[in-house]
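Listing S7. Sequence submitted for prediction.
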Amino acid sequence: MRRLILIGMIGVFALSGCAAPQTKTGKGAAYGAAGGAVAGAVLGQAIGGNTEATLLGAAAGAAVGAAAGAGVGHMIVSFDLDSDLVRPGLYNELDRIAQVLIKYPQTSILVEGHTDSTGSDTYNQQLSERRANSVKNLLVQRGVQVYRINTIGYGESRPVATNATPEGRQMNRRVEIRINPNAQG
């Protein structure tokens, strides 16, 4: 039971450090709670294999999902203009995430790269892919198994803020790290 709660709280404790502000947090929290409950139930069933574990996993997953939906449940790494280098100030946070990922190997990681709208679509697509791979490489260097990490670049197609201001463009230059439980058969 304790293990389920710890696994369910991974998203809150390990990934809450660098989340960007989000709008419509109430709606996001509701969607996150629903998604988290499903993921938690799958994880609970996989680990415990019984109804009690499934229910506990669903409850823990709902709590983590609500936090994620409110903008707290995944890590966001920001980048300088035209750069795919992770800022050294974020290494400690990546160390912490890697430690959790190593401790809980029944998870998969999706690293999503993004850019602002400065530059061509083709260039931004490639830059977003390089950013995602930079974060992936740092996690692998810290001991996370490479096969658990998938990367994708979205270029400038998924902004979280306006590209009309320097502050908005900075928010759009990012990599998002999402951790998902693996279903066990």
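Caption to Listing S7: primary sequence and predicted structure tokens for the chain studied. The first strand starts at residue 75 and ends at 78. Residues 1-73 form one domain.
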